[in-house]
Amino acid sequence: MIKRIVKRAVFVVLAALASTAAMAQTATVKTETVRIQKYPGVVSLLAVVAAEKGYCSKHGLDCVLVTNSSSVVGLQALLSGGLDVATPAVATALQLAAKGTPVRFIGNAWQKNPYEFAVDAQAAMPKDLSAMMRTLKGKRIGVTTRGSGPEYALRSFLQEAGMKEGDVTVVAVGAPDLAYAALVNKQIDAAISYPPMGALCEVMKTCNIYAMLSKGEWPKELDMLDGAQIPLVVRAELAEKKPHVVKALRSAFKEAEAFIQADGNLDALIAMVNKHNKFDNPKAAELTKVLVRNAIPAFFFDLDPKALQAASDYMLRTDQLDKPYDTSGLSVL
Question: Which end of the chain is more exposed for a tag (fewer CB within 10 A), N or C?
């Protein structure tokens, strides 16, 4: 009897010690807060899913999504410490990196080219890109902000047509909803923006999408950039001092990718997009469905180093960089 009592007491003590040790270990696990740039619309769906489905918390992260509609402003916030992860257009990010700014690329927010070129509903729509650009000579073309990804795309298209930036008037109009409003109200004649610009034109029938770059409808040379179009960019200091955070981010985003690409999750994705974006529009439900449906093929996380170098080489050829730039040291894979 005494032996059984002693044995039971020892078991209780050991269990208590094990529980205390587990509690102490749990208490020492620090959840890292990571502030991630989120665009209006659907471009940042990987980040939204990573946060909403609990993939961030599963890997020890508190993913805080910070709405910001501009590559330029997002990078400024990254460098000033207001963001931990920016999601700029690759051209904007490489402009910064080529100047020696210590940044690293850890994956993709959006793999394909996100830009959509919208024109007035009554505008001429020549099939040839150069002919299309010539119809816009002297016209006003909207971009998100000056120096942003849409403006770099516009420069490429003008160069393709043998035109100069001065041949059109570039107008900073903000996020896609603002660009759409400016276009349908005749404040601009065309706009280069990102989703939901295309969905708005398709559903509302008030403007036309001349081309969706995600479908390879523009210069084929741009297809070489797919795999590095909207990279996830962090400060080099974060990548070097907190590699566990980068590893956790990569894991959370890969799980988000798997959820997005799996069959049967469209309704759940629409619900998440609705939670983060409110369309003040009588056709809001149709808009969201079109938006998400069109975007799903772009959500693959892994960054392609060859595509990143192709982006640098393309920028050199189109005078967006003044000298060759080797991107091999930028990727954290």
Answer: N
Task: Check pLDDT > 90 for residue 269.
Answer: yes
Instruction: Look at 14-18, 107-111, 154-158 and tell me which has the smallest mean pLDDT.
Output: 14-18
What is the SS3 string spanning the chain? Answer: CHHHHHHHHHHHHHHHHHHHHHHHHHHHCCCEEEEEEECCCCCCHHHHHHHHCCHHHHCCEEEEEEECCCHHHHHHHHHHCCCCEECCCHHHHHHHHHCCCCEEEEEEEECCCCCEEEEECCCCCCCCHHHHHHHCCCCEEEECCCCCHHHHHHHHHHHHCCCCHHHCEEEECCCHHHHHHHHHCCCCCEEEECCCHHHHHHHHCCEEEEEEHHHCCCCHHHHHHCCCCEEEEEEHHHHHHCHHHHHHHHHHHHHHHHHHHCCCCHHHHHHHHHHHCCCCCCCHHHHHHHHHHHHHHHCCCCCCHHHHHHHHHHHHHCCCCCCCCCCCCCECC
What is the reported pLDDT for 165? 86
All domains of the chain in start order, with CATH? 32-112+226-317 (3.40.190.10), 116-223 (3.40.190.10)
- The predicted pLDDT at position 283 comes to 86
